[in-house]
Design goal:
By secondary structure, the chain is mainly alpha-helical. It folds into two domains: 111 residues, Serine Threonine Protein Phosphatase 5, Tetratricopeptide repeat, CATH 1.25.40; 146 residues, no CATH class. Helices cover 59% and strands 3% of the residues. It contains 14 helices and three strands. The protein has a three-stranded antiparallel sheet, covered by helices on one side. α9 crosses α12. The termini are far apart.
Length: 298
């Protein structure tokens, strides 16, 4: 390893530790020293995920950095952000949550993560059943984005067209697009359950969307697809697919309308809005199957 890469070592033997300790003591306190700590910690943490010792070493480095780096408020918050994510990924859920809560309470620097810290914590709130707090955290995250999600009311008023550019008139045509997407195409995982078009199919999609690797949900629609595609096609089509499942589960029927997202599922004396369920899944990561079951039970 080049001497200039002393803070990027992917091993942590005695020689690597000694070299790092010698160099870090000479580094200027503040941002520079903090950066050396978090770069070295990241190199170790992701070097070989199957070696817990490296991950523990990375976490210990960040804990040292909070004491030794002399970082100012914003950079200290960045160190905490790295630390909290590493703690969560390593399985220390309680410590990770506490650390990331401290991040949100502290001064923020220019450094940003993906997904945003608010969304990482929102998912933990959903795991604990606190939908209200999760929604608040999602909204805080979206308010900081250059292009936040379009409101549900605005989306529902838009004309939705199919791949040929023709407006959807039958919600079932839009629902079928979801079956096509998840029929083992390269950009979508294969989900055989979609052929049934029932609540079990929604649960299968929920499992795909919740798949998380190092805190990133690459298969979730909001992450997997560009915002324009999500809002002009995927989300409305997903809503129609939810409607198909509601019709099957409740023995109801469609009341088709234009634009597409004004359509409703008639279930007895009630009208259910499947497109709102899709919106809450895409932008607030609520599970489709649970929302559909709740809508039928009201």
């Amino acid at each position: 390893m080049s001497d200039r890469d002393w803070f990027r070592s992917r091993t942590w033997d005695e020689a690597a530790r000694t070299r790092f300790d010698t160099k870090i003591r000479r580094a200027r306190k503040g941002f520079s020293r903090a950066q050396y700590f978090w770069v070295q910690a990241g190199s170790l943490f992701y070097a070989r995920p199957t070696e817990p010792a490296l991950r523990r070493a990375a976490i210990e480095l960040l804990e040292r950095a909070l004491v030794e780096s002399g970082a100012e408020a914003g950079d200290r918050t960045t160190l905490l952000d790295h630390l909290g994510r590493f703690q969560l990924i390593a399985g220390d859920r309680a410590a990770g949550i506490r650390t990331l809560e401290a991040v949100l309470a502290g001064a923020r620097s220019f450094h940003a993560h993906d997904p945003p810290t608010e969304i990482v914590l929102a998912r933990r709130r959903l795991e604990d059943g606190d939908r209200a707090e999760a929604a608040r955290l999602f909204d805080v995250a979206y308010a900081q984005m250059f292009a936040p999600p379009t409101s549900y009311a605005e989306l529902a008023a838009r004309e939705i067209v199919d791949v040929q550019g023709a407006p959807y008139r039958d919600p079932e045509d839009a629902a079928e697009a979801i079956v096509v997407y998840y029929h083992a195409e390269d950009e979508h995982p294969a989900v055989d359950e979609v052929y049934a078009g029932d609540l079990g199919a929604l649960a299968a999609l929920d499992r795909i969307y919740a798949t998380e690797v190092d805190l990133v949900r690459t298969l979730h629609p909001r992450t997997a697809y560009k915002r324009d595609f999500v809002e002009t096609q995927f989300l409305p089509e997903l809503g129609a697919f939810v409607g198909r499942a509601l019709v099957k589960a409740g023995g109801g029927r469609w009341r088709a309308a234009a634009p597409l997202m004004q359509s409703r599922v008639v279930n007895g004396a009630r009208e259910l809005d499947p497109f709102r369920i899709a919106y809450d899944c895409v932008y607030y990561e609520l599970p489709l199957a649970a929302l559909a079951a709740e809508a039928l039970a009201r």
